Amino acid sequence: MTARLTGIWRHPIKAHGREALERVGLTPGATLPWDRAWAVAHEAAAADGSAWAPCSEFTRGAKAPALMAITAALDPATETVTLRHPERPALTFRPDHDGAAFLDWVRPLMPEGRAAPARLVRAPGRGMTDTDFPSISICNHASHRAVEGRHGRPLSPHRWRGNLWVEGLAPWEEFDLVGREIRVGAARLRVVERTGRCRATTANPETGRVDVDTLALLREWGHEDFAVYAEVVEGGEIAVGDRVVPA
To answer: Which of helix, strand or coil describes residue 144?
Structure first.
């Protein structure tokens, strides 16, 4: 297996925007830096940021598809985030201090009948990923092309909200990596499990509107999985263009 890293993406606020990176340093036992550093607890949630909480505690694309069209830019030095959406003016704010401004901005994107966003919480020393361990998700371009082929039209890879994108594997070969270690640039990761998917992927990341039954497409292979979750076991810098090889 020899592949290449073609993309690095972080999501500073869980389910509320994506941001491309050219390079980043990874730390053992940690998520991608600043990935899911904050999350948006809804009014029925108990999550307060004191501990990891499951995705059901937060507003997300599965329940509010318009969120899928948000893009983000983070300034780590000032911990300031800029969000953009085709139906909203740009918002620049500090999640730890300007929560009210964010809530006012995001409410028009929430559908009626869903629990409203109530507060921003900061992840407790790790990204608030969907896994109960600090994970980094790895997506395979060939698997994405296989889904596109079944659909018959191009699909945005942003539907999958992955951290790392890899070119050079066969379709679904990433599933064979579960339980194995790989080296990406200077870092070493252990692939832990497959990534089960939800209805967030049915929304178009450009418009925030549901337009493709991606879960039905995945079921044509007998599952609803896309990508894998990995954990960092040896830190180091990774960059777009790095080789991805067995460790």
So the answer is: helix
Residue that the structure tokens 């080296």 belong to: 183
In Å, how far are 39, 198, 204, 205, 214 from 211, measured between CA atoms? 26, 14, 6, 10, 9
Distance in angstroms (rounded) separating the CA atoms of residues 52 and 120: 14
Distances (CA, A) of 187 to 32, 221, 239: 12, 31, 10
pLDDT digits (tens, 9 = 90+) for 198-212: 999 999 999 999 999
- N residues, the chain: 247
Structure tokens at 26: 């990874």
Contacts 24+ apart (CB under 8 A), 9-12: 9/161, 9/162, 9/163, 9/164, 9/165, 10/34, 10/35, 10/74, 10/163, 11/35, 11/36, 11/72, 11/161, 12/36, 12/37, 12/38, 12/72, 12/74, 12/81, 12/95
Distance, CA of 15 to CA of 37 (rounded, Å): 11
pTM: 0.97
